[in-house]
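Following up on my earlier message about uracil. Here are the inputs again, as you asked, copied directly from the submission form:
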Amino acid sequence: MRTYDCIAKKRDGEELTEEEIHYLISSYVAGDIPDYQMAAFLMAVYFQGMTDKETSIMTQEVARSGDMVDLSAIQGIKVDKHSTGGVGDKTSMIVAPIAAACGLKVAKMSGRGLGHTGGTVDKLEAIPGFRTTLTMEEFVDVVNRTGLSIVGQSGNLAPADKKMYALRDVTATVDSIPLIAVSIMGKKLAAGDDCILLDVKTGSGAFMKTLEGSVELAKTMVSIGGAAGKKTAALITNMDIPLGNYIGNALEVAEAVEVLKGGGPSDLREVCLHLAANMLELADKGNFAECMETARKTLEDGSAFSKFLEMVEAQGGDISCIRDTSRLPFAPLRHEVRARKEGYIAHMDTQACGTASVLLGAGRETKESLLDYGAGIILKKKTGDYVKEGDVLAEFLASEEKRFPAAEEKFHSALTIAAERPEKEKLILGKVSANCTEIF
Ligand code: URA
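Thanks, got it. Here's what our run produced:
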């Protein structure tokens, strides 16, 4: 088989065979196909797309390109939840303990921040001592003992995705629906859970900016999960506004704890409850209304918070920082950002808000950048709020004074201030399951 012929076939819009896709992925991982040929192939996919059959086969190949995690030693229904990435998205730290408090087993492999978006592994590492690298035996043991564990992806999980993602990142081929679906579902299938709930973010802070694109991505991923024998569903949730009020690693742990203790901002709590209820429904724990009620109770009675404490302790984290989040390592310098004019906040470009927090040190500018776990943004006003000139819009946290000016400019550029009050946007925009797509 010749790589050239596979590239030409895709360039011309033809469907590749199973053998051709197997050849491309296995040879690329083995180092037998150079980056420039894979880049040409990815660009051909970007323009021509892939059929459902091709997407499903490629996902299986990516999943099988490295270790397939065996979770059979975990008793019970193993449920995963995966977000396509957003700003202020600390839902995994809330939803996993809720699901565990309801009796599910959550064995979760999470990622690090990507571009302007945050990653759960980085957030958890803001807790002093918390280990996100466990052996497979430790991982299974923590899930069996506490009901949940969140770790980073093992070194050899879906290596084809690792290589292709790095190439896509520098060849303008990230925002392709089949390639995103293959990338996310390849890792999910390798991670070995029984049920997968996807949180497909949509809007200015998401990789998919439009509802149509997000629905198509959700349908593609749900169909891949179903074809692989996993119960899979997707919620489409709003990422046209940061989720909650805190952006940044230690800050997001603190806000997640507020929700787990029964408080916290209502948008974050509602999105988390919807995600948790959908995980319970996928695992056959009742109809949606019953699952919502069960999930809500775990925040009221403290059982979800106890699960989070158990996981943090089991993974070496300092639980005194969870009981009292003021002990988390927040950056020492604070800076207030004030409104430059009066009016309603009509829109927040959420990607720019994420970039402002990266500029403060909360994300990576390059692969080698060190994170400042304590840096970030506390939002005091959000879309729909009325502000007068000079009102505090946000408080920035950083470890170096020099970080504030560029972050402040970026943050101001994210805001549209207008005379008209904007319409309130929905938090949950749709749901895609195996046999039905609902737009709310
Ligand atoms: N997250 C992933 O893991 N892969 C993508 O392609 C996009 C977001």
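One observation from looking it over: DSSP finds 17 helices and 14 strands in the chain. Hope that helps, and feel free to reply on this thread.
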